[in-house]
Amino acid sequence: MAILFWMATVILDVVYLFWRTNNFSPGYTESLPEIAFILFILTSIFYFRGSIGKADSINFIDLLWRAFVTGLITTVLSLVIKLFLFVFDGHSITQNFVFVNLLYEFNIGLVLVFTLSGFIIFKRLILYQKTKRLLRAWNIYEIALAALLIIGVLDIIPYSPFFFAIAIPIILFGVVLSVNMKWVAYLNFKQKWKAILFIVLTLIYLLYYIQNLNQFGNNYIIQRNLFDSPFFLAIFSFIIAYSSFSLLVILFNLPTSSVFEQKMEEAMNFQKLSRAIPTGENEEQVYDILLSSAMSAVFADSAWIDIKEDHQEHLIMSRNITDENIRLMEQSLSDSKSKNFARRSLSRLTQAGVEVYSLRGTLYRSALIVPIEIEKKKTGELILLKEVSEGFNREMAEIITAFVNQACVSIENFRLIQNALENERYKEELKIAKKVQQSLLPEELIETDAFSIAAFSEAADEVGGDYYDILQSEEGKAVIIVGDVSGKGTSAAFNMSQMKGVFHSLAPMDISPEDFLVRANDALGSCLEKTSFITATIFQVDIKERKIVFARAGHCPTLFYCASKDESYYFKNIGLGLGILRNKDYQDYVQQQELQVEKGDVIILYTDGITESRNKEDEEFGYDRLREFLVQNSSLSPIEIKERLLEEFYRFCGTDKPLDDYTFMIIKFN
Amino acid sequence: MTEIKRYQEDDQVIIQINGEIDASSSIELDEALRSSLDESSKVLVDCEGLSYISSAGLGVFMSYIQETKQKEIQFVLYGMPEKVKSVFGILGLDQLIKIEDSKDKAKEVVD
User: Fold this and answer.
1) B63 and A531 in contact by Cβ < 8 A?
2) Mean pLDDT, to the nearest integer, of A307-319?
3) Closest chain B CA to residue A581
4) How many CB atoms lie within 10 A of CB A214?
């Protein structure tokens, strides 16, 4: 489209000239080619606006590169025209008024393409990080330029006072707008050099064009002199002004660009530190990132991190320094600590504990030490070293402190997550332990002619196991056990399974309860943990003889109801928990008892969860309550007694959720 | 909140327990016993403020029975409330560890 309008302008201009030189009337007025010319400019601008993208911090150089390339192509084409003129210098064709104008028109096309693309590119750069005010100013400027373009149609005498009156304010406006160059700050050192190169070349093209077009104007009579157009002058001066300004700004910014890059890197390192943990890295990797970012932030020559946490090995991570040198420096630093002159505390200025040292007689002349604090506890130090003296200042101490704090926050977060996971695992483990415990209890209880039996067991979460079991020996004796394993969770479940193993191997052997406990103590003593023990009560019931033989290993005393006397009491035999005394002396602490039972007698075996349970008034369920309960309910069947007891027990506790392990067995003799 | 204090009196080390000994405070109790038995051959435990002891706490006391016997360390608990004393009694620990009613009696036993 733009090319079409350009061609139209060229043809109309040339035809107009041709006819005029031959004294013909062209058949149209001078304004027709002017309109084509304006349309050419407008379509070019729209084309560039569409094809040149928005300025972004990554593509400044691409934009400048584009201006440069456009300039290069148009300049080369223009040079071809110049070469043509040079070769045919003096030839009749170069004297032809119409032909020279045709060539000049070509040049106009080229220079406009170049300047308009430059104009759009600079517009993008100026409007980078625009404000509302700037945008408004720019819009006014564009409208003014458009007005200039239209005014160009009117025949204003070039360089007349009126011409200057309208052109100069707009030119000055363009120059004022040219001071907006925020984008320069975002270029790094290398990019700045590139930008300078492109802008210098762009300026050279511009100067070439000015010279070239001027030459045309001087040597030949030109129908459409570009320099007579106020619009063109405004655009031209704007591009020159903006190019020169940016050149100067970039030049002056060159030395400070490293500082800007440094700040950018610090910000990136911060992000790296805070993101290290969620991406699954461990604490050591965080320290590693801290070490490298701290070193690059203050240009340290060497550094190390020394971490000493409770119950853990010393962790030392270093950069550019051998272990031997670390030891030497540690020595030298602790020497300096005693001498005050070598130590400059920055604590007034930054976080407490940050220290700067000047050293003598070592490879390094200055040191910066920042404490590493995790969960409000000092866990280590970051030591940065420089070979120059007075190498650390307040800003450096501040940025390093910020790095260290960020790393510590990361590590704290890491530990929080870790703890949450461990808790989850622990809960899972407890669930398994509970399942194991339940599987260790008998599924059904044997019934004999001598007695009927009922049992209940319920465990609270996280509480160790109660155990009960019943077996019948070959000699027609029933062996009943109730036990309580100390400890919680998996270890309790494990000990409980050991107890079951012992019971199932010893009970069928028809040994006395006393013997049973001595042997069980032997077996368990070798596998229980040092602080673990098991309490148990074991009963052997001679079904034929209606005789019970029993012994107690530190377990709660058994409750007995004597039907003939209609009273209940606790057996008072001595005993010692299994695993407490792990040698032969144990047998001295076991006492076996025998009792002839009669019809209607009841035994309740239980664990301390029952008697020790408290109600809301902090009152224990207690031995007396249990004893009285049995007297009142002794006429019932074991299953009924069990139901009643549960009812009474939970009513007393005021809850239906177990807060402890509750186990009991009720045996009633027939 | 459980508080376990240690102090020297004459040639004896006295461990004073205030509060409950459960699974978590039993670790603290274990540490106190460990260092006291390393320091002195006469160790008294003041249980006047001991309101409750779990099986974990009993396990700690139990784990030092053999050692005090072998090293002939005088190890006496005193001043337990009745409830706590019955817990020691049921388990049978009162047969293995000297438990006295008062500090004076405990001191008599040690001397």
Assistant:
1) yes
2) 81
3) B66
4) 13
Q: How close is the nearest chain B Cα to the Cα of A305, in Å?
A: 32
Is a pLDDT exceeding 80 seen at residue A154? no
Q: What percent of chain A has pLDDT over 70?
A: 88
Question: Taking CB atoms and an 8 Å limit, are A580 and B91 in contact across chains?
Answer: yes
Report yes or no: A229 and A41 within 8 Å, Cβ to Cβ.
Answer: no
Q: Encoding tokens for residue A546?
A: 């209606």
**Is A582 close to B66, i.e. CB distance below 8 A?**
yes
Q: Return the residue of B nearest to A590 by Cα.
A: B92
Token output for A589: 């602490």
Is the ipTM beyond the 0.90 threshold?
yes
Q: Tokens at residue A418, please?
A: 């870790």
Q: How far is B27 from chain A (nearest CA, A)?
A: 11
- List strands edge to edge, sheet with B42-53: B3-9, B12-21, B42-53, B74-78, B98-100
Instruction: Of A189-198, A418-427, A460-469, A562-571, give the range with the top mean pLDDT.
Output: A562-571
A622-648 per-position pLDDT tens digit: 999 999 999 999 999 999 999 999 999
Q: Which helix (H) or strand (E) segment is A306 a member of? A: strand A302-307
Find all residues with CB under 8 Å of A451, minimum gap 6, and list them.
Answer: A478, A541, A667, A668, A669, A670
Q: What are the residues facing B6 on neighbouring strands?
A: B15
Closest in A554, A580, A582 to B90, CB measured: A554
A461 within 8 A of A435, measured Cβ to Cβ: no
**CA-based nearest distance A359→chain B, Å:** 43
Spatial contact of A504 and A462, defined as CB atoms under 8 Å apart:
no
What does the DSSP 8-state code read for residue A620? B
Residue corresponding to tokens 């023990």: A533
Give the contacts of A121 (CB within 8 A, at least 6 positions apart).
A52, A63, A64, A66, A67
How far is Cα B26 from Cα A350, in angstroms, rounded to an integer? Answer: 43
B91–A574 CB contact, under 8 Å: no
Query: By mean pLDDT, which of A92-101, A328-337, A375-384, A632-641 is the weakest?
Result: A92-101
Q: Under a CB-based contact definition with an 8 Å cutoff, are residues A440 and A471 in contact?
A: no
List chain A residues with CB under 8 Å of B95: 574, 576, 589
Both structure tokens of A577: 């928990």
Q: Do B23 and A580 touch (CB under 8 A)?
A: no
> Which of A77, A76, A93 minimizes the C-alpha distance to A85?
A93
The residues on B that touch A, with CB distances below 8 Å, are: 23, 26, 30, 55-56, 58-60, 62-63, 65-66, 90-93, 95-96
The Cβ of residue A53 has, within 10 Å, a number of other Cβ atoms equal to 11
Angle (CA) A633-A638-A644 rounded to 5° is 50
A589 vs B23, B30, B95: nearest CB: B95
